[in-house]
Amino acid sequence: MTNAEIAVERPRVGSSGVARARSRRRRRAVLAAAVWLVILANAAVIVWLWLHDGGIRDAHGPGAVATSLGRITGLLGAYLALIQVLLLARLPGLEQLIGFDRMTVWHRRNGKACLTLLLAHMVLVTVGYAKFDQISIRAEISSLAHDYPGMITATVGTGLLVLVVFTSIVLVRRRLPYEAWHAVHLLAYAGIALAWSHQIPTGNELSADHTAATYWTALYVVTLALLVVFRFLWPVARGLWYGMRVEEVVPEGPGVVSVHITGRHLERLQAQPGQFFLWRFFARGAWWQAHPFSLSAAPDGRSLRITVKEVGSFTARLRTLAPGTAVHVEGPFGVFTPEVQRRDRVLLIAGGIGITPVRALLEAIPGDIAVIYRALRDEDLVLRDELVAIAGRRGATVHCVVGDHAAPGAGHLLSPTHLSELVPDLTEREVYLCGPPAMTRSAERSLRRAGVPRRYTHIERFAL
Questions:
Q1: Per CATH, the architecture of 339-461 is what?
Q2: Average pLDDT of span 328-351
Q3: What CA–CA distance (Å, rounded) separates 209 from 155?
Q4: What Å distances lie between residue 262 and 38, 244, 309, 323, 356, CA to CA?
Q5: What's the whole-number mean pLDDT along residues 201-206?
Q6: Are strands 397-402 and 368-375 parallel, antiparallel or unpaired?
Q7: Residues 310-327: tens digit of each pLDDT
Q8: What is the residue-averaged pLDDT of the chain?
Q9: From the CA atom positions of the chain, what is the Rg in Å?
Q10: Distance, C-alpha 368 to centroid of its chain
């Protein structure tokens, strides 16, 4: 365990900081209500159009009921597919409102709900048509494939969405390289495009209803326009404006490097300590991928720094980046920042390479600060010397907790009792927590059992 503690005057959050935090929460609450109002209003319009076209009211017999229910589940599934695209379309303000990690979780849950509705649509329509035609399910499937235009493309599109959702399951996701996971998720766009070809030009629900067809076409067009502008055109324009380049690459430890980036007008990014960007380096073998990395130093308006651990082919290439390599970024993202702070006393907890945003926060966050840095081995404590030096200047305390929970006598590490021993006033502090998923979940449970209120806990999850 390493401690660095110096008695110096510490800046305080003060009543103005608390007031700003409350103002931001109110503003976010209003914006969140507006977002939900738009989402629910469109869902209500979709249901109304279905009811206006007969809905289940005009359905007589099991076959007609199943078919009608199949249509509304298909329509709602298509609507959730459009929301799925917009959740990660980098819409200005939406990420700051919700938080990128939370948006990613919503994206995953929405995807599962979307797929459930689309599968229900397929089953209900098939059963309904079979009842109406008085033939077997197998014969109806053959009939749909041969006689209904767009059915094959819709089936392929649904299959692609099944693949995307399957790769989002935690156990599968952890075994996939980030590059493979990202490539599979791009298939979602193809799946949605194929669904459009089935729904708009050939769908029975819309082909005879001009109002509904126009409404749905508008939904698709607006979604496509937002996607093109904020996922493609806007990032390219920003990249040209900032003109970022690699300045140098510095080894920090076994398999860990820091990449220093410079550019023009970087102060206009308005990046904050604790935030991250999606980084694209225009080097051989890396230019086609964008990966999320947190800032490992507080931004100064002139340069940015990330510290990356080698965990795959992309991160392995970063140590070979040449000075002058062009860099493109999207962001900044995340609400793991000093802006959400409401207490004068702060505890920063990091695990492994999760130290990067915590190290940046330590430079800038006001108040009485304690840091807990969790690692399996001493050599995994990257940036430790920087942490101790910053802590010495700021009068903070740094605790380096090293060891494997499975080792004899180490099962108590970061338990509620252990946390309270390290930081006796734990329950009076605002806590920032970042690290690998297992460590984060374990530390979060310990904080709850130790009595730290949820509203004073901020977690940056490795959600991508």
A1: 3-Layer(aba) Sandwich (3.40)
A2: 90
A3: 24
A4: 40, 6, 21, 10, 18
A5: 56
A6: parallel
A7: 887 888 889 999 999 999
A8: 83
A9: 26
A10: 30
